[in-house]
Design brief:
Elements lengths: L4 E7 L11 H9 L4 E2 L2 H13 L3 E10 L5 E8 L5 E7 L3 E8 L5 E8 L9 H10 L3 H24 L6 E8 L1 H8 L19 E3 L1 H4 L8 E4 L9 H10 L8 E6 L2 E7 L4 E7 L19 E7 L5 E5 L7 E2 L1 H13 L16 E4 L2 E8 L5 E5 H24 L9 E5 H4 L4 H7 L10 E3 L3 H11 L3 H11 E3 L6 H10 L13
Parallel strand pairs: 2-4, 5-8, 8-10, 11-20, 13-22, 14-16, 20-21
Antiparallel strand pairs: 1-3, 3-4, 5-6, 6-7, 9-10, 11-12, 12-13, 14-15, 17-18, 18-19
Helix pairs in contact: 3-4, 4-5, 7-12, 7-13, 8-11, 9-14
């Protein structure tokens, strides 16, 4: 354990007429810490604390940054008993947090909430334009996000029954736009060529500068962004997946509202992103919903074309979440109910005509309640599927590799964690590779943030990673649209491209 904030203890020599160094100087000398910063609040409490404890002192020290972004450690507290940190993954749709005991590295509890910014738009671009075009739009998005972060932190504190001052560190992994919204930075130049963020490496921040409710002297670290649409969440995921330590090429695919990809080895990393769109989250269809109790997460059809549903918690079906849509479309194709282009075949079992045209009757409950996935929604799903595969293909070809050269395909994100390898290959979301090459990491972004909380030496690894990264701007890639058309079929019009 080399946590981002760590304990110290010692006994200082009492002052005398022949040794009249200040209390702060005595503490600095006893700790032997270079560039040690002692905040004013600690200085105010220090004299009484030392004399009340016979010059024995305990406290905590954090990694931080001084003037000019130079390394500097600072004292966060003296006499504090609890020592905790929060890892945070701020996604476009959900915000995940976990509370970690920095003495032991144990994850004490977790929390997830819907990102309340969704009220301003389900996707990033809608929120960006809201912040630019609406009066006080940027402030509203910032305040909304800060309040949400504080809600997650308070929930974690309440679950563990700890005080606000006991949280000494917060590590944030977020995409570029979410990072800007959190810091209240303008996002005007992110969506337009040449796609320039205000800052790529915001580094350490103080809680008061953002309005985050942890120990006022605590530290907040934000993972660096890799580009306008590839943020600190993918850098954190690279830490968790360890592809930056691999001798052979591996690929990390974070599937959520956006699809972010990192392909590389210990010598180089190429990153890029594309829109996964609502087809990969609860905006999936008119019956889409979050992965909560009652959500359909798996669909299968037997030989007689009977529909078998699996719901979260075994509750009656209420909606269809992302993994459910993936398994549904894969199952419909394997059962011969949809064609290679996704078109429903009239006359097949459960193919019906509803309020929005042709659709597939997924569930029929009491009082005439029905769950129908319509043809237009299947088409939209295939567009998102095609965009993801094309992104993967273009990234691989850019570095002169074939799918067969990739050692591991690491899936993470809201959807990537839970989809089945068989469904992924059936649809052509991934190339046709052996299942032992497909690895799932539950929320690699959150996992990387947690690892940094427990090991400050990973700050050096982050510097290595950012130096290895090359960002590919997909908006300017002419080959993307050419490959996209073929990928909108199941699994793909060119099966050779799928071979891995």
């Amino acid at each position: 354990m080399n946590p981002l904030v760590w304990r110290f203890s010692g006994r200082l020599s009492p002052p005398s007429l022949t040794d009249n160094a200040s209390d702060a100087s005595r503490l600095e000398a006893a700790l032997g810490q270079p560039r040690l910063h002692i905040p004013l609040s600690v200085l105010r409490a220090l004299p009484a604390y030392l004399r009340d404890n016979d010059y024995a002192v305990t406290g905590s020290i954090a990694c931080a940054e001084g003037p000019g972004n130079k390394p500097e450690n600072k004292i966060v507290s003296i006499g504090q008993r609890g020592l905790y940190g929060v890892a945070l993954d701020i996604g476009s749709t959900n915000i995940w947090g976990e509370l970690i005991d920095l003495d032991t590295g144990a994850v004490l509890c977790k929390e997830v909430i819907t990102n309340p910014q969704t009220r301003y738009g389900a996707d990033i671009l809608t929120r960006i334009f809201y912040s630019i075009l609406e009066q006080d739009g940027a402030a509203a998005l910032h305040e909304c996000l800060v309040a949400a972060v504080n809600t997650v932190i308070k929930s974690l504190r309440d679950q563990a029954a700890i005080a606000q001052d006991a949280i000494h560190a917060l590590v944030v992994a977020a995409n570029t736009t979410m990072t800007h919204f959190l810091l209240n930075l303008p996002v005007n130049n992110i969506p337009t060529s040449p796609y320039i963020p205000v800052v790529n490496a915001p580094g350490f921040q103080t809680p008061s500068n953002i309005g985050i409710e942890i120990n006022p002297q605590g530290v907040i670290y934000l993972f660096p962004n890799a580009g306008s649409y590839v943020g600190g969440d993918i850098v954190s995921g690279i830490i968790a997946s360890k592809i930056y330590k691999s001798d052979t090429p591996s690929i990390l695919i974070d599937i959520g509202t956006n699809v972010e990809i990192a392909l590389g080895t210990k010598d180089w990393i190429l990153v890029g992103a594309g829109a996964g769109g609502p087809a990969f989250d609860e905006g999936i269809s008119g019956i889409g919903g979050r992965a909560a109790e009652g959500a359909i997460y798996d669909v299968s059809l037997d030989a007689a074309l009977n529909v078998n549903l699996q719901t979260i918690g075994g509750a009656p079906p209420s909606c269809l979440c992302g993994t459910g849509m993936v398994s549904l479309v894969a199952g419909l194709f394997e059962a011969g109910i949809i064609e290679q282009n996704g078109a429903l075949i009239e006359g097949k079992r459960n193919v019906v005509t509803g309020a929005q045209g042709s659709g597939f009757l997924l569930y029929k409950g009491g009082k005439g309640r029905q769950l129908i996935v319509y043809q237009t929604e299947i088409n939209n799903f295939l567009i998102s599927k095609a965009a993801m595969f094309t992104l993967l293909s273009v990234m691989t070809h850019t570095v002169g590799l074939a799918f067969s050269d990739i050692d591991k395909f690491i899936l993470t994100g809201a959807l990537g964690t839970h989809i089945k390898a068989r469904d992924v290959k059936t649809l052509g979301l991934l190339p046709d590779v052996s299942e032992d090459r497909i690895i799932h990491i539950e929320n690699a972004s959150l996992a990387g943030a947690g690892r940094l909380l427990c090991d400050r030496h990973l700050l050096d690894d982050i510097s290595v990673i950012t130096n290895l990264i090359t960002y590919k701007e997909m908006n300017e890639d002419t080959g993307f649209m050419n490959e996209l058309q073929g990928a909108m079929f199941i699994p793909h019009t060119d099966v050779i491209k799928l071979k891995g």
